[in-house]
Specification:
One of its GO terms (molecular function) is oxidoreductase activity. With 251 residues, this protein is of the alpha/beta class. Helices cover 41% and strands 14% of the residues.
């Protein structure tokens, strides 16, 4: 096994153009990681640079930030996922893959539609699975060059917990996150055998665009907790569902 100090650690974050994904990118860049930011819209790349550094002159953003690379990746489009993986290249090690991109459509028993249910499953559950599979060679490459566990972290939600659901509603979001939890459990078995630890993360009820900024914590508080969880994670935590405060959430 290669000596880990021979290279910087690398994180790939989906949905890195705003909110939780953007703040995660900011955190890992500030702590010395190589950051690969994956965004759905190529135009969002400028937003990544602008928001991370709060630089007004857009022309200076790329050089100032020095993000290693920005990938165009739409988690609802399998061809886009494969193209992003090919662009990065299988020989680039990824120590931490954070599947953060997601969507929320608030619904009720009366309003939930088939189209919106399927859309949320496609983005919140199927997409992260396809991303994990596409970048598996990169995670495996990192396994061979690091003494620390390589981590696949899927951003889920406490509303995906079956045992904690006492309020109903939000059928598409709840069920798609529960599906993500189930997929991650299966991945923890298959990838665990390859030295990759799979985690689920609940970021809290965060003040982001997804929640119309109605959350009970700001994004910096959420990311501080998530980063602490990830920093402390060992392979013994494989298949664990963590709250941003470090507690374990029941299935």
């Amino acid at each position: 096994m290669a000596i880990e100090s021979a290279r910087q650690r690398r994180v790939l974050i989906t949905g890195a153009n705003r909110g939780i994904g953007l703040t995660l990118a900011k955190h890992y860049k500030a702590t010395g990681w190589n950051v690969v930011a994956a965004v759905r819209n190529p135009a969002a790349a400028s937003e990544v640079h602008a928001c991370i550094l709060t630089i007004l002159d857009v022309s200076l953003q790329l050089h100032a930030l020095q993000v290693e690379s920005i990938l165009t990746l739409d988690v609802s489009n399998e061809e886009s996922i494969h193209a992003a993986a090919c662009t990065l290249g299988a020989d680039v090690p990824i120590d931490l893959l954070i599947n953060n991109a997601g969507v929320l459509t608030r619904d009720s028993l009366a309003s939930a539609s088939k189209a919106e249910l399927l859309r949320q499953f496609e983005i919140n559950a199927v997409g992260p699975f396809l991303v994990a599979r596409a970048f598996l060679p990169n995670l495996e490459r990192a396994v061979a060059t690091s003494v620390r566990p390589q981590i696949l972290a899927n951003v889920s939600s406490i509303v995906g917990s079956m045992s904690l659901n006492t309020t109903g509603q939000n059928y598409g979001y709840r069920s798609s996150k529960a599906a993500l939890n189930s997929l991650t459990k299966s991945l923890s078995v298959d990838l665990g055998a390859r030295g990759i630890c799979c985690l689920l993360l609940h970021p809290g009820y965060v003040q982001t665009d997804m929640t119309d900024h109605r959350g009970d914590m700001d994004v910096h508080e959420s990311i501080a907790g998530l980063a602490a969880v990830l920093a402390k994670a060992t392979f013994d935590d494989n298949a664990t569902f963590f709250h941003t405060n470090g507690s374990v959430i029941p299935w």
